[in-house]
């Protein structure tokens, strides 16, 4: 093209093309990540939206990954373009193969020629992906060959993890009706004070049975007797268990 007007037209067209490609990625990948997260193939936080109804985690992940690619490649276009081309052809192949599956499954009017058209397109883009990968394998194309299986394996691992969690939570099954359970609340007490009263009041609102436990050193028998006398005089209507332990440990068995 030389340095005339056509040179600048080509440069401007290239910039516009790359800008549209980047915009498509930031507009499409977060939505795709949301769909994959809903199907338990990605962590569920990719399906969360911010206050402005954007998928912040998908956008952040794409921004960080893009920045890392630029840094690793040193901004070298000859290394990044093969990755873009291979990714585009692989995406076209998968999307058109998915459309073939859609037409075969739904079978609306004229589904045969539509399935044939999408199948032919999938074949062409698949051949193009193979050719570009083979010709650019040593120039960065190997990264896609390695990354795609790892991505699929990672999504399969996430899916199995959510499947195990769902089995534990019995998702998709109607649980049995809830049944009340008796609960025991143990309240350590040391003296008859307002703090003891407030603690017992809170415990009575939480459990069916409340037990106050007083732990005393074996040599402090006078203090233990004084506490029992104060407790009986107060008579809060709560069972009292008194323990004697040199280390003031709370160990007892409730029948």
TrEMBL record:
Can you tell me which residues the record assigns to a coiled coil? none
Query: What is the name attached to this protein's record?
Result: Amino acid transporter
Where are the bilayer-spanning segments? Answer: 6-33, 54-73, 79-103, 115-134, 140-158
Classification via InterPro entries: AA/rel_permease1 (IPR002293), APC_K+_Transporter (IPR053153)
Query: What membrane topology does this protein have?
Result: Multi-pass membrane protein
Task: Give the chief site where it resides.
Answer: membrane
Where does it reside? Membrane
**Record keyword Amino-acid biosynthesis present:** no
Q: Which UniProt keywords apply?
A: Membrane, Transmembrane, Transmembrane helix
């Amino acid at each position: 093209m030389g340095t005339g007007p056509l040179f600048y037209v080509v440069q401007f067209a290239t910039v516009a093309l790359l800008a549209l490609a980047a915009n498509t990625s930031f507009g499409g990948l977060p939505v795709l990540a949301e769909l994959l997260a809903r199907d338990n193939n990605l962590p569920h936080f990719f399906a969360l939206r911010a206050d402005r109804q954007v998928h912040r985690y998908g956008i952040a992940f794409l921004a960080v990954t893009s920045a890392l690619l630029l840094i690793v490649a040193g901004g070298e276009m000859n290394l990044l373009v093969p990755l873009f081309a291979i990714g585009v052809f692989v995406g076209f192949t998968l999307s058109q193969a998915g459309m073939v599956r859609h037409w075969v499954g739904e079978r609306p009017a004229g589904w045969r020629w539509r399935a044939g058209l999408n199948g032919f397109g999938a074949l062409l883009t698949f051949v193009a992906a193979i050719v570009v990968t083979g010709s650019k394998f040593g120039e960065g194309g190997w990264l896609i060959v390695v990354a795609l299986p790892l991505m699929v394996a990672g999504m399969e691992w996430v899916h199995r993890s959510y499947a195990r969690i769902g089995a534990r939570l019995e998702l998709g099954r109607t649980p049995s009706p809830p049944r009340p359970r008796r609960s025991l609340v143990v309240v350590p007490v040391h003296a008859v004070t307002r703090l003891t009263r407030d603690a017992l009041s809170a415990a009575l609102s939480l459990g069916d049975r409340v037990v106050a436990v007083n732990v005393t050193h074996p040599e402090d028998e006078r203090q233990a007797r004084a506490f029992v006398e104060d407790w009986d005089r107060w008579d809060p209507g709560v069972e009292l268990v008194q323990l004697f332990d040199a280390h003031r440990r709370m160990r007892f068995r409730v029948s």
